[in-house]
Amino acid sequence: IRWSLYNPGAKFLDPVTYNAVVTSHALVMIFFFVMPVMIGGFGNWLIPLMLQVADMQFPRLNAFSFWVLPGSLYLMLMSNIVENGVGAGWTIYPPLSTYSYHGVCMDLAILSLHLAGISSIFSSINFMVTISNMRSVGGHLLALFPWSIKVTSFLLLTTLPVLAGGLTMLLTDRHFNTSFF
After folding, report:
1. Shortest CA distance to 50 belongs to which of 158, 130, 164, 165?
2. pLDDT tens track for 35-63
3. In sequence order, which residues have a C-beta less than 8 Å from that of residue 160 and are 6 or more positions away?
4. Which residue ranges make up each domain of the chain?
5. Which among 162, 150, 155 has a CA at the least distance from the CA of 114?
6. Bigger pLDDT: 109 or 143?
7. What is the SS3 assignment for 134?
């Protein structure tokens, strides 16, 4: 990516491959690094320590949200191998994500984003319940990190169903000839 940006006239990557690389980089960084590692990983490590409890409120829900991610990442990586890869931008720009531009690779990416969203929703529910219910008796004041995880979890719970709805509408546009986008 850097080489192509440094040398605009060079034909190091063709435009389709460049779009696929940029899209896969953005989707992997957002949905498979920032959200699971930065929020889920550090939250699962630090929230029980800061609340002085042994574990999160629902450890099995926590494990489920963790084990959904490898399958979702596998589908995302497979979407880059199938056909020419997903080159629709990190926003899955609807004209570029229609069936006339991308086939099975876009379906794999959409399914991957659905699974990553389910994982993030379940971990966000676990964070909100844990922070709300498991603080100590005299601990009405929380540190800044639990508050930030609680607010981020609330924002994820409000935005990820909207993302899932948009992805579902995109799937119906692609396969059932609806016209949402």
Report:
1. 130
2. 999 899 999 999 999 888 889 999 999 99
3. 117, 120, 121, 124
4. 15-176
5. 162
6. 109
7. coil
